[in-house]
Design goal:
The protein is an alpha+beta fold. It has four helices and four strands. It has a single domain (2-6, 20-115), classed as Gyrase A, domain 2 (2-Layer Sandwich). The protein is globular, with a radius of gyration of 14 Å.
Amino acid sequence: MSENLAEKRCKPCEGGVEPLRPDQAAALLEALHEDWTLSDDGLEISRRFDFPAYSRTLAFANAVAWIAITEGHHPVLTVSYGSCGVSYTTHAIDGLSDNDFICAAKIDRLAKASIE
């Protein structure tokens, strides 16, 4: 199912819609890599990616940034020497939307391709 999400495109969200219910978020989370976690308040998903060198971390962060620009949906990136944390929420609705999971699936695909 992650591949199905990765094939979708984000839709602009300027508010006016309800955030995903906890059961909807949990169902979509099942479609992602098992390392994605849902925050306790159900408003954010996040995953940490580890790398053997800073250059690999930066390359990954730049590729994630490209996905964000292409999709018009931007994560919080936390870049350190050997890791990059990625977290998503949809600020316009103060919660999670399909866009968060679409982008996460695209990042899963990127991460999988980078280790093969």
